[in-house]
Amino acid sequence: MQKIKEYFFKLKNFKFKTKHIVQIYLLIFLSVIFAFIYINMPYFYYLMHNFRDVFAGDLQLYSIYVGQGDCSLLVFPDKTTMLIDTGTSDSTENMTTEIETILKVNDKENIDYLILTHPNADHIGGAIEVLDKFEVETIYRPCLSIPGEDLEDIPTYNDILYHEVISKIYEKDIEMRFIEPLEFTVSDFLVKFWTPNLKDYTDENSYSPIMTISNVNVTLMFTGDATKISENEFLEILGDEDLKVDFLKVAHHGSKNSSTMEFLSKIKPTYAIISAGYNNAYKFPSQEVIDRLKSVGTREIYTTNELGTIGFGIGNASFVTANVFVFVDKPFLFITYFCLVFSIFSFKSYPVHDKAKRYINFINNNYDVKKS
Asked: Which residues contact 325 (CB under 8 A, 6 or more apart)?
């Protein structure tokens, strides 16, 4: 026992030598590199996965991974930006970081249009953070009021999160418009809300608009959590007209209760995008929906639960093959960092290493280890 005490006394009075100073400098250098990578991680991922090709597209479309939620960002040819939904509250940090990166690469700082499809938490969960972090010009919100709003013929939706989001919009004095059948132009694209047609639904998902963004070359459709009611309303408006959709953001994370065969057969999407959480409890997307999409001729089905954030660079006649990235988990980064630190201080030249070796030999030579 006396030898053990002597060992720790020597360790306590250990004096640094030149080799230790070098290791400390290595540690500082490693820490600076780690911090730089950590701060700029989203940008590195965009470069690594050829998101530069997406940036080169006339229209950029991103389905941002927000777990079991929904969030899409469009950058139009004139750099107008449109954010459709804001994911869950749990996904806020990664979502805002990705949005900031996309805006930065496009020399943008603000969001021109924010579309809040309906008041569910998995679609507006990050809205307050988005409003605090980015300047937003115009917001389209559901035809639902909050307690205290004196709006004739608009039903009141008494939900704490929805109330906080709308109150934040009022606080920031942002222009608000209700989502109803209407259309407007952005760049050379026509943005059209086909639904909702009613003012009062028993299911708040039905307030989700079926929305198209189109020009002479391409048509994109976004559906929020649209229900069969929403799809039937759309089909009634469309009538005998044909509407070929190139990109469909599939309704309700791929739930089998949406995306009916009647609806899909009418639009026949070439590419489908499904936003769902990895290993989610609902087991979205439903295999039934996948089969329906394939049966109407959909070429590719992209899911965020498998691919993470998905980017599309859409040109006049084609689009850049989807590029994807998934953030490396932060715990993994820190574990890697500490492993590297440990390796720096485990060089054989390090005196403490030799002392530790002698200590182990001392234990082996002086004590019997008995098996229980």
From this structure: 45, 46, 48, 49, 51, 308, 309
Q: CA neighbours within 13 Å on the CB side: how many for 189?
A: 28
Q: How far apart are CA 141 and CA 150, in angstroms?
A: 16
Q: How many Cα atoms sit within 13 Å of 154 on the Cβ side?
A: 19
3-state secondary structure of 209: coil
Does the pLDDT at position 302 exceed 70? yes
Helix (H, G, I), strand (E, B) or coil at 79: coil
Q: Which domains does the chain have, with CATH numbers?
A: 2-38+331-366 (no CATH), 40-327 (3.60.15.10)
Q: What is the reported pLDDT for 272?
A: 96
Using the predicted structure, report yes or no on whether residue 245 has a pLDDT greater than 80: yes
Is 290 in contact with 301 (CB distance < 8 Å)?
yes
Phi, psi of 127 (to 5 degrees): -65, -45
* pTM over cut 0.70: yes
CA distance 144 to 322: 36
Q: Are 293 and 250 in contact (CB under 8 A)?
A: yes
What Cα–Cα distance (Å) separates residue 111 from each residue in 124, 202, 285? 16, 32, 29
Q: At 343, give phi and psi (nearest 5°).
A: -65, -35
Choose between 317 and 93: higher pLDDT. Answer: 93
- Bond before 42 cis per omega within 30 degrees: no
**Type of residue found at 168:** K
The residue among 305, 254, 248, 250 whose CA lies nearest residue 67 is 305
**Would you place residue 328 in the very low, low, confident or very high pLDDT band (cuts 50, 70, 90)?**
very low
Tell me the pLDDT tens digit for each residue of 40-80: 665 665 555 556 677 777 899 999 999 999 999 999 999 99
Long-range (24+ apart) CB contacts under 8 A made by 341-350 are 341/27, 341/30, 344/23, 344/26, 344/27, 344/30, 345/23, 345/27, 347/23, 349/19, 350/19, 350/20, 350/23
Tell me the two tokens of residue 198. 């009613």
Regarding predicted confidence, which is higher, 320 or 284?
284
In terms of DSSP H, where are the helices of the chain? 2-12, 18-39, 41-48, 51-55, 92-105, 121-124, 127-133, 160-171, 228-238, 261-267, 287-295, 304-307, 330-344, 351-366
